[in-house]
Design goal:
Layout: E1 5-12, E2 18-26, E3 29-32, E4 35-43, E5 68-75, E6 88-96, E7 99-103, E8 106-110, E9 115-119, E10 123-126, E11 133-141
Antiparallel strand pairs: 1-2, 3-4, 4-5, 5-11, 6-9, 6-11, 7-8, 7-10
């Protein structure tokens, strides 16, 4: 079963008053067996600028050079491995289920509420539990970063 993410985005109306710009459900994108990406927001540069663009119309990879990406990831038990690294500092929060973050040297078992600060290292997300795991990710580009696509090798 897929999850949907409701996204509420604020903005300004023609008179310059605060308003709700978008209030919609974001459909998950299945990127490989056992993993769905729910893109919530992104910025093309840092410091971030407020634009009227909907980042979900952009070609978003894992990370965005010079910008930031916010997404949910839903991992089925026994998801397909994807060892990868990004040119970013990533804030990962386990929202539900269980997750194992595998590193070249070691691993950590995550439960709801646990946070990982991932700093451009080679890693893999592996759901060894019996229930789906939902993770929230905020990826902030490092200086000189390159955009990372979904199918690029590490």
């Amino acid at each position: 079963m897929s999850i949907k993410g409701r996204r509420v985005v604020t903005g300004f109306n023609k008179e310059g008053k605060s308003c709700i710009k978008w209030d919609n459900e974001i459909e998950p994108i299945q990127l490989r067996p056992g993993f769905e990406n729910i893109p919530m927001w992104a910025t093309r540069k840092l410091p971030a600028e407020s634009t009227d663009d909907d980042p979900n119309t952009w070609d978003l990879g894992t990370s965005l050079a010079g910008g930031s990406v916010f997404r949910y990831g839903r991992y089925e038990p026994k998801n397909i491995a994807r060892w990868h690294k990004t040119d970013s500092v990533d804030y990962a929060i386990c929202l539900s289920g269980e997750m194992w973050m595998e590193m070249e040297d070691g691993e950590v078992h995550l439960k709801p509420g646990d946070v990982v600060i991932q700093r451009g290292t080679l890693h893999n997300w592996n759901n060894r539990g019996t229930e789906p795991c939902v993770m929230a990710f905020v990826l902030v580009a490092t200086e000189g970063a390159k955009t990372t696509g979904w199918n690029e090798p590490h």
